[in-house]
Amino acid sequence: MRRGIKVVALAVLLCAVVFATACSANKTAPDAVTTTNTESNEVKPNQAVPIDITSDFTDPAFLAAVYEAVGKTAPEEIFSEDVAEIDTLYVFSKGIKSLAGLEHFSKLKSLYCGGNQLTSLPELPVSMCFLYCGRNQLTILPDLPSDLFGFDCGNNQLTSLPDLPDSLRQLHCGENLLTALPELPAGLEFLTVNNNKLTSLPKLPAKLRHLVCSDNQLTDLDVTGLPLEVFDCSNNKIDEIIGYISD
User: Fold this and answer.
1) Domain ranges of the chain
2) What is the pLDDT of residues 156-170, one digit of tens each?
3) What is the pLDDT of residues 81-130, one digit of tens each?
4) Which residues of the chain have pLDDT under 50?
5) Which site from 58, 114, 136, 144 is most exposed, i.e. has the minimal number of CB atoms within 10 Å?
6) Where are the beta strands (DSSP E) in 120-225?
7) What span, in angstroms and rounded, lies between the C-alpha atoms of 76 and 135?
8) Which of 43, 25, 36, 97 has its CA nearest to residue 69?
9) Residue 175: how many other CB atoms lie within 10 Å
10) What CA–CA distances, in Å, run from 38 to 17, 32, 65, 171, 239?
11) What are the start-end ranges of the E strands in the chain?
């Protein structure tokens, strides 16, 4: 039987809530890209020589997306300074199989790479605070940046997650093959883990207010003291939810 408060549309919640709060200093719209003026590559005195990084983008689809992001067209060269100031990169549903070359986005804060054909991710820029890589074919994830605030890896083929940074406030990893979760950060407020193979959950953070863990194999659940606003644990094997008071 379905228990708890009615679940809102998760996709809307993720886009509206996560991005509105994560990376608060970043004023760029989700589908916008901040670019650097590269009209002239003339080297001036005491100016570093531009480095051609075009060949580092080995995936044709990702290369095309980078050209679009920096405002250039093939076969122009892409230089390191072209991407150095970009803080938001939106490459959703472009048929990308590899993000090789991502390391050159040294100031990247938000990456939207969902809906592609990725099976793995490269090392992520340490500057990142939001990552959406859902709806791919990921089987493994790299280490996560220490300042990551929002993370959505839902609808992949993941069997495990890496250690989660203390900064994380929102985690969406539903529709995977997870059998266990790592320790959850103390400040986590949003957790979506539906449609996995979980038999138990780790200790739930005291600030958690959004919990969707439906369609798993959970046998017990303790939500004592949690300020839950959204809660769904339906389609599990739970006889009693400890600490839950329904409306």
Assistant:
1) 1-22+129-247
2) 999 999 999 999 999
3) 999 999 999 999 999 999 999 999 999 999 999 999 999 999 999 999 99
4) 1-22, 24-40
5) 58
6) 130-132, 150-152, 170-172, 190-192, 210-212, 221-222
7) 31
8) 36
9) 20
10) 34, 18, 17, 37, 62
11) 88-90, 110-112, 130-132, 150-152, 170-172, 190-192, 210-212, 221-222, 230-232, 241-242
DSSP classification of residue 76: S
Structure-block tokens of residue 207: 């600030």
**CA 171 – CA 151 distance, rounded (Å):** 5
Closest CA to 165 of 135, 185, 182, 140: 185
Helix (H, G, I), strand (E, B) or coil at 64: helix
Q: Which residues pair with 110 in a beta bridge?
A: 88, 130
* The predicted structure's pLDDT at residue 13: 42
C-alpha to C-alpha distance for 236 and 213, rounded to whole angstroms = 9
Q: Are the CB atoms for 102 and 125 separated by under 8 Å?
A: yes
Per DSSP, the three-state class of 139 is coil
Residue 70 is encoded by which pair of tokens?
């920096």
Rounded CA-CA distance 80/58 in Å is 15
φ, ψ at 104 (rounded to 5°): -75, -15
3-state secondary structure of 148: coil
Please give the structure tokens belonging to residue 158: 């993941």
Token readout for 171 is 């985690």
How many angstroms separate the CA atoms of 94 and 92, rounded? 6
**Helix-then-strand count for the chain, H and E:** 4, 10
Architecture per CATH, domain 1-22+129-247, reads as Alpha-Beta Horseshoe (3.80)
Give the Cα separation of 28 and 204 in Å (integer): 33
